[in-house]
Amino acid sequence: MRRGRVVDQQWLRAEISHTNTQMVILRAKDKTLKANRRYFMHTPVFNMTRYFEKFLTFVLSYYFFFFFLWRFKSQIIQKLVEACFETDMQQLEVEMQKKRETSPKKKGNTQQQKNGKKKKKKQQINRIKFKSKDKHSWNFFDF
């Protein structure tokens, strides 16, 4: 009877120690997990995994934005030019129409050319005129 009690106590002690060791193991695992988390938090790999989604959305949004600009750049530029210079272009068309109506028309062959007497002209070097003398003619460089 007494021996049975001792066995029971030994079994109980063994069971308690087993559960204790299991608890110790679980606590140790938990501590290592926390320690690993604390350690990996400062590594670039962890930061990459942590901020990868934000980085990816940032890169993709800019990629699509610039792709959109590149794809539709001609339409966008055309719309901007139309919006900015619509009134200027209409005014320019009116001025050009007036200029066409008022300018003298070129004659055909002159009498001198018919007679074969052509005046010799001095050779002129054609230079780019940045500012034209005519007020109505529009030049890119007239600002």
From TrEMBL:
Chain positions covered by the region annotation Disordered: 96-126
Comp. bias intervals (Basic residues): 115-126
Residue stretches spanning the membrane: 51-70
Keywords for the protein's UniProt record, in alphabetical order: Membrane, Transmembrane, Transmembrane helix
The protein, known as: Uncharacterized protein
Source organism of the structure: Reticulomyxa filosa
